[in-house]
Design goal:
The chain is an all-alpha fold. The protein is built from 2 helices and no strands. The radius of gyration is 23 Å and the shape is elongated.
Length: about 70
């Protein structure tokens, strides 16, 4: 499923190792921080996409206005 040599058993082993490293209580904090980071990243990308069309209109010079 995840390519040659990396399937569900390997994914389970990685999950157990992460659980042992961080512990159950700390794992929720790590997940929460990761979620916040992803939300902020998506918000920044969305804001960047909204400003690009406005920049394209203002970047046109006199030669681009159909004269």
């Amino acid at each position: 499923m995840f390519g040659p040599g990396f399937g569900w058993p390997e994914l389970l082993i990685v999950a157990v190792i992460i659980l042992l490293l961080f512990g159950a209580g700390r794992l929720t904090d790590v997940g929460s921080s990761l979620g916040k980071g992803i939300r902020e990243f998506r918000k920044a990308v969305r804001e960047d996409d909204e400003t690009k069309p406005e920049q394209a209109k203002s970047d046109k010079g006199p030669a681009d206005q159909g004269n």
